[in-house]
Fold this protein.
Amino acid sequence: MIDKFINKILQGDCLELFKNIPDNSVDMTFADPPFNLKKNYTSYTDSLEFHEYLNWCEKWISEMVRVTKPTGAIFVHNIPKWLTYYATYLNRFANFKHWISWDAPTAPMGKSLQPAHYGILFYTKEPKGAKIYELRHPHKRDRKQGYLWKDYGGKKDLLHPFGPLVSDVWADIHRIKHNTKRDPHPCQLPIHLMDRLILLTTDDNDLVLDPFSGTGTTAISAKRLGRKYIGFELDKNYIEISQQKLAKTMPNYKIGESWVSFYLNDIITIRNNDWNRLRDYFIMPEPIRAIDYKRIKIKDKKLIPSEKELPLIKENTTVEKLENKNGKKVKRQENTLFVKFG
Ligand SMILES: C[S@@+](CC[C@H](N)C(=O)[O-])C[C@H]1O[C@@H](n2cnc3c(N)ncnc32)[C@H](O)[C@@H]1O
């Protein structure tokens, strides 16, 4: 029954669409819901009363848990305020693994501490038997000099040539800053953020479901990593943009037999247990302690898939944005780039 929904973005309300998905049928569910922050969506009013918003969230969270396989993982992305309520709810029938702190500046709110991270709750359906893989990311370096950011003292010979294990604080993935890289959507996520979650908890051919698909970030990540996907989305235009992008996406985020996440010309996430197969594709610094100032390099640049730019058409469209400045609500006019596909 689920087969006809596989590799599709379905239009409609997620609670209705979830009714088509059998229990225990999806390997990973990820949700990036509207944050109830009055964002400028085209088909959804992002401002519900406090309890109304939370009651609604509890409904789709229950559905995520229901459809996830006993070996599967559940992720929910939001600002910390809402995640505290989600976690209290999820603790009743799923298994807490991590609160991933995604270090990314958020909208200024109030007059106390400046929010500087989003959270991603990571739960598994069952306490035991879930698929989880260790990941590695490249060593952090000084941008100009190229030296390692951290001082490892006399232990540089022991460093992993690719980079350290990924922790629960992600500071190396940035929000999409340039309008030329974004779709006309107020809160599109970077695809390599999704790559990391998918590599963390799924294998190729596994099924990933996103009930708030937006312009298809999760589906694109799943497709380029050789996974299957199902997306739900209210807005027809966002689905159209997703389909245009998906048509150009190939399952080619791979080196040899190992799926990896690329960003620009770098590999930014690998699985730890793939390293023995991957190492032959790199030129290693010699001796290994030279890693302090020398990066490992991929031997053949042709192995890096080219990120072909999608054709852009500028439109002189003006949108109104609500923004919270010094605690006051102010209206601001902003020119926006709208992306069209040829
Ligand atoms: C925060 S955005 C997701 C962005 C997405 N992660 C991306 O990278 O493009 C939330 C999305 O949920 C959609 N949405 C809101 N309510 C929905 C509902 N009840 N069912 C399905 N989609 C909904 C909105 O149209 C919006 O595109």
Observations:
- Residues 13-14, 32-34, 41, 43-44, 185, 187-189, 212, 214-215, 217, 232-235, 238 surround S-adenosylmethionine (CB under 6 Å).
- The CA atoms of residues 136 and 165 lie 4 Å apart.
